[in-house]
């Protein structure tokens, strides 16, 4: 598919006959790749009380020296707070699977099944939780999509724990909220400057009592054929039922955001298509949403360090991230079984680079 239209792009899952592989202990190591690389570990949490939280640690080699940054959001009960900032004293454990900075820790247990995360930002934000994997993790193919005819230009890599059980707390300006619920963990690595990878990104994290869905999609720049690369997963009753790459994001209706110049979706249709991992039955998921609650519109250049900002601005990129959090309903069809109608919480993002 992609190889026919963009020979300088080598898409994960198309490079071999293996659609997916399990996430191993080595996959969970921080690589700190050289060159213009950015690496993140991100936890997305939907709480039992209907709140949303995400926490991210970022390590970037773009610029003159490494940059370490945190980002965190809590949304719910009338509170919508987003914090980000630089950190110092980044250290890895001997096995490279845990990381600490001044103010933040991400620690993986020896069995590689559970993360313990803590973050303190001034007196405004204190987060502490345990994120325990449900079933297993996965990556598409061997994980990497490569750029360049000889794969040397760069790469993008995503590794997923598609569902986890979460317990913990967050304090916002001293006010406590529990973080008990479920979530998604993503370990991502971009081995080249972000504005050279994609013009658009889409992201989905959906949880109901029975079903969990994830999706990451990016559209490559015209230099690499404007190819849409999509990776998704389906979890049913705490079991990873399927992973898929034949997925789609359709903006059924858009409107112009005059501030940014981007056409923002007013109605979106997400679809997943694949085969169940064990039974090999075909599955299809459809989730249509008219997002009502825009959680945030993030001007990315306002949230990144000065040196990186200048590099991105020089490439005439103006990245914005639109984030929504709403109730949604997904229809899941596996083989000839009756459809599963799952109503839950949907966190979705649309990112525009230029």
UniProtKB/TrEMBL annotation:
* A Pfam family that the UniProt record links to this protein: Svf1
Does the entry feature the keyword Cytoplasm, yes or no? Answer: yes
Spell out the subcellular localization from the entry: Cytoplasm
Q: What are the entry keywords? A: Cytoplasm
Question: What organism is recorded for this protein?
Answer: Paraglomus brasilianum
Instruction: Cite the Svf1-like N-terminal domain residue spans from the record.
Output: 38-190
The record's comment on protein family reads: Belongs to the SVF1 family.
The entry's cellular-component GO terms read: cytoplasm
Q: What's the domain of life for this entry?
A: Eukaryota
Q: Which SUPFAM superfamilies match?
A: AttH-like
Q: What InterPro entries does the record point to?
A: Ceramide-binding_SVF1, Svf1-like_C, Svf1-like_N
Q: Which chain regions cross the lipid bilayer? A: none
- List GO BP terms, alphabetically: response to oxidative stress
Main subcellular location: cytoplasm
Name listed for the protein in its UniProt record: 201_t:CDS:1
User: What residues does the Svf1-like C-terminal domain cover?
Assistant: 192-353
């Amino acid at each position: 598919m992609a190889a026919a239209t963009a020979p300088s792009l080598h898409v994960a899952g198309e490079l071999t006959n293996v659609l997916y592989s399990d996430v191993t202990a080595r996959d969970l190591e921080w690589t700190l790749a050289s060159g213009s690389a950015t690496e993140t570990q991100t936890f997305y949490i939907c709480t039992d009380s209907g709140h949303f939280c995400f926490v991210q640690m970022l390590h970037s080699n773009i610029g003159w020296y490494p940059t370490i940054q945190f980002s965190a959001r809590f949304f719910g009960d009338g509170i919508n707070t987003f914090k980000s900032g630089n950190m110092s004293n980044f250290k890895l454990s001997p096995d490279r699977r845990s990381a600490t900075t001044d103010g933040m820790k991400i620690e993986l247990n020896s069995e590689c099944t559970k993360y313990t995360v803590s973050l303190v930002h001034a007196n405004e934000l204190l987060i502490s939780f345990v994120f325990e994997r449900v079933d297993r993790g996965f990556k598409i193919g061997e994980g990497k999509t490569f750029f360049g005819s000889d794969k040397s230009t760069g790469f993008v890599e995503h590794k997923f724990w598609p569902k986890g059980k979460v317990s913990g707390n967050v304090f916002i300006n001293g006010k406590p909220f529990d973080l008990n619920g479920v979530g998604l963990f993503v370990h991502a690595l971009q081995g080249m400057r972000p504005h050279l990878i994609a013009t658009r990104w889409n992201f989905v994290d959906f949880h109901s009592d029975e079903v969990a869905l994830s999706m990451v999609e990016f559209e490559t720049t015209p230099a690499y054929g404007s190819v849409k690369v999509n990776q998704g997963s389906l979890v049913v009753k705490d079991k990873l039922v399927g992973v898929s790459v034949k997925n789609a994001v359709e903006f059924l209706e858009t409107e112009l955001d005059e501030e940014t110049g981007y056409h923002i979706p007013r109605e979106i249709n997400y679809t997943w298509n694949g085969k169940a991992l064990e039974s090999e039955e075909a599955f299809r998921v459809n989730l249509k949403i008219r997002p009502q609650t825009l959680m945030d519109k993030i001007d990315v250049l306002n949230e990144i360090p000065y040196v990186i900002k200048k590099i991105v601005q020089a490439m005439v990129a103006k990245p914005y991230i639109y984030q929504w959090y709403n109730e949604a309903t997904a229809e899941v069809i596996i083989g000839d079984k009756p459809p599963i109608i799952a109503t839950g919480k949907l966190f979705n993002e649309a990112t525009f680079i230029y």
